[in-house]
Structures are given as structure tokens and as C-alpha cells.
Specification:
- With 211 residues, this protein is an all-alpha fold.
- The protein has a single domain, classed as Tetratricopeptide repeat domain (Serine Threonine Protein Phosphatase 5, Tetratricopeptide repeat).
- It contains ten helices and no strands.
- It starts with a helix and ends with a helix.
- 36% of the residues are buried.
Amino acid sequence: MRAFSCSLAALALLAASAAAAGAQETTSPPPGVATEPPAPLAQDVPSPAATQAERLDALFAELRREGDGAKAEAIAARIQREWQDSGSATVDLLMGRAAQAIARKNGAAALDLLDQTVVLDPDYAEGWNRRATLHYAENRYRLSLADVAEVLKREPRHFGALAGMGAMLEEMGRRREALATFERVLAIYPAMKPAQDAAARLADALAGERA
């Protein structure tokens, strides 16, 4: 199961790195994410004057309705861009430097920068999420799960953090908790194929245990 979990972590790291470095250079998106998502129908476009919370609510409503995997990925990418908007030039700088350190495989430097980020702006969920992903990639599951809990306090709909938590719980042998977590992902993002596959696999495994 490690291969599946690593793929989730890699996608999370790629998405985070691309967003943080985006102001400095053009980067490739995670596999399967369109570089220019198709324009949604006019009635689904949040007003430019809407708050970030209102834009996110509208996007999550679209995500729940969308059954096509590619279109859902495009909506998810728009949600991630909203999440990555910290509203602080200093936080953006720290996140960008952390992304660069991760790209250079300098985990210690990245961790220091992310520690500074969550201290500077503890309400910014993506700071916690990036640090959770780094802890996961370096096999510090306890610390990663603690940071995921902080993400979910701030954004309970964070499908990336939930998917990472599900992957860790499965690797730790906590299958029932993992299944419940992936079911939470699918309630938010029904077309997320890795979560669909994980939920089906775990449900089959638990059914076999009861047989």
C-alpha cells in the first residue's frame, strides 16, 4: 500500500510546490490536472467581488455535483488555488522558499521555513498542510497526523489532507478508520479516483475479515 500512499504525497507536494513557486517561474501541474481548466458555465462562476469563503462554497458545490473525473480535477485545482492564497506576502515568501527546499530535497530547511509559517500565521491551513505532507514524506506519521488535525480544524473539507490521513491510517493497519476517512473524502469530492479505489479496497478487506 506504500506505493499508493506515496503517490498521494507526491501529488500533494507537486501541487504545493507549483503554487508556491508560481509567482517566480512557470511549473508543470500534477499529472491529470489541466493547465487551463475549462471555463465553467456562467451561472457557476462566483462573482469577482465574492469573498474567498463564498468562492470556496460555490466551488465545493460544483465539486460535489461533478461526476466526470477530468472536470472534477479542474474544479479541485481551482479550490487548491484558493487555499494557497495566504493574503500575506511574507507567508507567500516562506511557502515559496519551502517549496524550493523540498525540490532540492532539503527537508531540514523546508521544515524550518514551514515552522516559521505556522507560527507567523497559525490560521493559514495550507501552512499546516504543507508541513503535514513533508512529515508524511519523511515517515513522521505521528507529526503528520497532528498537522492534518490542525488543517481540518481550519478547513474540514480539505480533501487532500483527508486523503493523506486515510493513506497513513491504512499503512498503520487502522483499516476501519482509514475507510471512514476515505468516505469523508468522497462525500466532498465524489469523483476522486484514488479515494474511490482505496475505499473499495478497504471495504473488501474488512468484509473478508468478517467472513
